[in-house]
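Researcher: Go.
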Amino acid sequence: MKIYDGQIVKPGYVIIRQRGTKFLPGKNVGLGDDDTIYALKEGRVKFKTIRKTTFSGKKVWKKIVHVIPE
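Model: Structure:
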């Protein structure tokens, strides 16, 4: 984790370096080839947890990363 919830980022800032997709990209956030999550716009970082259904019907909790413009 490079940037935490509530911190300000600029476009191109790396928010999370990860192996696999433990965190998923949300609004104004991009996903690199190596699963790095980075900011697409300037704003404040917000983390959110949602319940998602997989292709097999299993329900899992996933963490989403958003950048909210100010």
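Model: The longest strand covers residues 43-53.
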